[in-house]
Design goal:
Residues 1-91 form the Major facilitator superfamily (MFS) profile domain. It comes from Oryzias javanicus. It is found in: Membrane. By secondary structure, this protein is mainly α. 80% of the residues lie in helices and 0% in strands. The radius of gyration is 16 Å and the shape is globular. The relative contact order is 0.08.
Amino acid sequence: MLYIGLALYSFAAAVVVPCLSTLVSDYGSASQKGTVMGILRSLGCLARALGPVVSSSVYWIAGAQACFLLTSAAFVIPLALLSKASRLKEE
């Protein structure tokens, strides 16, 4: 089970994170690219630090079902925010 988790983590680190960086780089003007990428990296670090603490606390306090529902709902928030963000148009 540990090796399966490590394989999935390495896949995410090698493929998903660079693809996400590429998608996020389309947002903001040329002078804002560093800020946008910095925010992405900062939020990623914050999620990796707080995610296990929050989800394990919810798991032990409210149970497995509440933990999975809460984390599933948390994935909807970035989707809604990203759909409202304005994409930089090439002119």
